[in-house]
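Entry for the shared binder. Reason: the reviewer on the internal report wants the predicted structure included alongside the sequence.
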Amino acid sequence: MKPSRAFTSYSSVLITFFLLCLGVRSQLRSDYYATTCPNLLKIVRKEVVSALKNEMRMAASLIRLHFHDCFVNGCDASVLLDGSDGEKFAFPNLNSARGFDVVDSIKNVVESACSGVVSCADILAIAARDVVLLSGGPTWKVLLGRRDGLVANKTGSNNGLPSPFATIDEITAKFEAVGLNISDVVALSGAHTIGLARCVTFSTRLFNFSGTGTADTTMESNMVSDLQSLCPVNGDGDKTAALDRNSTDLFDNHYFKNLLNGKGLLVSDQILFSSDVAVTTTKRIVESYSNNLNIFFKDFASSMIRMGNIGPLTGSTGEIRKNCRVVNS
């Protein structure tokens, strides 16, 4: 029987997509700078160690920069560009995204050693891997060879980055839009095993949650009391609390153990275990990660590699910025 025209067209799309993915993977490789900047990994590691000695919270901030970069325009360092119309001023990043000065410091040292060779996008990818490892987490070979984008996308940041107030379906849709899946949602949410969040991102859970007149019932009662004291009604929305209660700076699977006990901080955290949708989607994965650190580490590393492969600029597209904050003149 002759295949239908629709089937043939659909098959062609799948084949094209597969070939494009292979093309990206073949252009990014772990030894990309082996001859042009052989000490790159050592340089970045040294600067990251220095940054974490100064402020351990920077580990979470640098992971988040890489995440927020890759989800908008692909992994092209567009999040680093200055300008009032840049991604830095999008709602998910405004007064929230951090670590730009650290990236500047790394870039300056790299430029001194290998001028005009290493992209800011690759520096973000390496730094994200290093902070995970230095915080006690897994390691992986970072694929390299990305080039830097020429434009930022503020609208893309506002629309494309998952919200801390979103449902599982909404979050999954944004992951799928960049080629990731629901397993990546849970694995990458595990990055919340380190870092802090502002009151403004979770205070809706503490008082009159969804018009109920009380706090979110999926949050553990002692945690509710503590956070109500920290983040009172009409209080300072910029005060912070640990994303992983009682394990703030160690990259482990304690975040998932907390979810089982109603101690997830953000709505988008706790719904991975407690929501009705989670029963058939994410709950089983959360339970698996809470019971087995090695499985979480393996899946997290794989998801970080997949995320790092989102829409990179390669070949002659984009540029190698001299200054990560501005395009070359």
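Summary line for the report: The CA atoms of residues 144 and 155 lie 27 Å apart.
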